[in-house]
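Collaboration report, partner site 2.

Our partner group contributed sequences for two proteins of shared interest, and the home lab folded both. The records are reproduced in the order in which they were received, starting with the first partner submission.
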Amino acid sequence: MASNERLRAVAVTEAVSLPCYWDLFDADGSWPKRGASCRAAAGITLDQLSWWARTLRDARNDYQWREQ
């Protein structure tokens, strides 16, 4: 990255706290285990993050940013 390039980012204000995260893994190693209290919140946050990732990837492919 050239020294004159800037980082362009989008803030994601939601967060999921995972205290004692090791207790959230199932016996087979899958995460989060069924019934974990964070399951819904993590799913929503990861869905939003995935949406942003796809949207920004598509925008970068469709529109080339030009510096002034």
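Second partner submission, folded after the first:
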Amino acid sequence: MGLVLSVQKLCTAYDVIFIQRPRWKRQELREKLRANRGDPGTVQSRPADGSRVSLLSSEEGEGSGEDHDGGGAHMPGQQSTQLDSQHVAEPKLTTFQQVAQTFSMYTNCHRLLNTDTDPSSLTCLHGLRVICTAWVVMGDLLIFQMIVVVGSSFQQVCEQTSKLKWFGYVIKRYLRLVPLVIIVGALYIGLWPVLGQGPVYPKDAPDRQACENHWFYTTLLVNTYIDVGDICFPWTWYIAAEFQLYLLCPIFMIPLVKGWKKTGTLAALVLIAASVISTGVISKLKKLPEMVLQYQLADAGIRNLSDVQNYILIKPYCRMAPYIIGLLLGHTLRKDGAPRLSRVVVALGWLLCIVSEMGTIFGVYGSYSHHHLATVDAAAVYNAVKDVTFGLGIAWAIFACLTGNGGIVNTFLSWRVFVPLSRMSYSIYLVHIPVIYLFIFHQEGAITMSEWALVVNFCGVFAISCVVSAIIHVVVETPMLAIQRTALRKLGLWQDTVLLQRESQ
């Protein structure tokens, strides 16, 4: 780690001194040339002799066909000043300079904090990604506090070549997910002994024993098929499930891309139905509760938290319905474009969206508050349909925002503040559990459970997770992705994969 930081410091110094500093000077010179030319919106300035010079910088585009005098004649000295402006154009970086920028913390910080987005990007997804990440952090924090006191969708789908290159398709996604898991996990376990102390602070990281025995399940992304207590970094079940669904989606996405719309749609609907039915049947047979926070109830015969996690929560076949809904939505928008909807349809869509989301979240209020406990059959129905109803609500919100019917929701979700946090969402997800562990095990007394305490604790945990994630993103994730991208290009795997996903998450 010390060697990596030393290399990054040297690359940062080289970048600032030999790349950025000359660039700043060229930018300053271009601004002066624009000002002398008298562009609208720029400060007017005159040469020392008092005469005005009209210049056309190379950055503004050559041969625009317009003269600022209103005629076709060149002003005196214009050709020479045009030539001078060409000298301040940005030079092409050498291979060494590109490598230096890959490890430069200055450049990586600039890229992270840059809120400019591609005009074709789905801007509302930045806000959704941040909100969902914060939701996960809050839920995990609540679960761990209760334990102490008493728990890809695609940007676009297209064909780049006529030949399917399955190896590139799989390896690209695998390299996007696993290396960062390994690095974050190694830092977490390696630094744990020196990060804290206290009466309940363990000597070794809570997951150390599981990682020593079952680390290969996590690195191979198949840890959803072992007991949740044996998973190395248990929160990475989601990454494994997402990767497995990523491998599954060609079953219906390839027919859709090829133009076999009925076949692809039928395959997708069959998979959704299979997920709903299998979840309900498993919940019924295993007598599972309708929520993960419900514990052993001997009189009702309902099982506890670990059973819900093992049989439903971490299983990709029980979680694939919203994933498929998202893929179908992305393909529909790209293929058919944005349809025109009447105000009545839009209002009805938002009403159903709110009802489905609120019903999914607050439908289990009675069990959470122990006012009444659901029967095994009711719990099975809820477990079977909750992911579908919640996923359909999110799908409508995205659909409305991308078709111009989002209104204030789209304005909020597209807020530029979300862009840097959206880029860090994967890092935040990986580090938030170690941060919660540190918070919980540093306690030297009883934890007060209240709504206000939860809000304060959540804000602190989320803020610290963001800070740690920003460091990891700049120091590790961004250089690693650049290296992977270069290596895959050299191997011909970056441009030739069939299904492309934007890697800016």
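Feedback sent to the partner group on the second submission included the following. The chain has 19 helices and no strands. Confidence is low (pLDDT under 50) at residues 41-83, 142-164, 295-302, 496-505.
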